[in-house]
Here is the input.
Amino acid sequence: MLVYLNERMNSIRNLRWEIGGTLPENIQSKLNESEKTFFDDYNRSLGRYIQSIGDIDLTNNLKVPPQQLYIEVHVLQDFGTLEMEDGTTLVLRKNNRVYLPRSEADPLVKQGILEHISG
Here is the structure.
């Protein structure tokens, strides 16, 4: 039983690194309350650690430098207002196409809110 629980915790930690700080509804529905609390606590702890080392986003893939600083994305679902790192805001509405900094778009692509448009 402990092995199963440990594997679940590891999977939840991995979700934070792969998807970001907000879990999609289809994943949240598969977690019990204790697992949701664990995810929230882990997310807050990781956020505090990232702030303590100078706001370097450790969740981005740093092994390969990005080919493009800005990418074109298709908005798959209404998101509302996105506040970017530089303080500007942008309203993301379903079916819009926008150019965003890769660092802003990648977490939302992982969450299924945006889709990268190749080209």
In short: The CA atoms of residues 5 and 75 lie 36 Å apart.
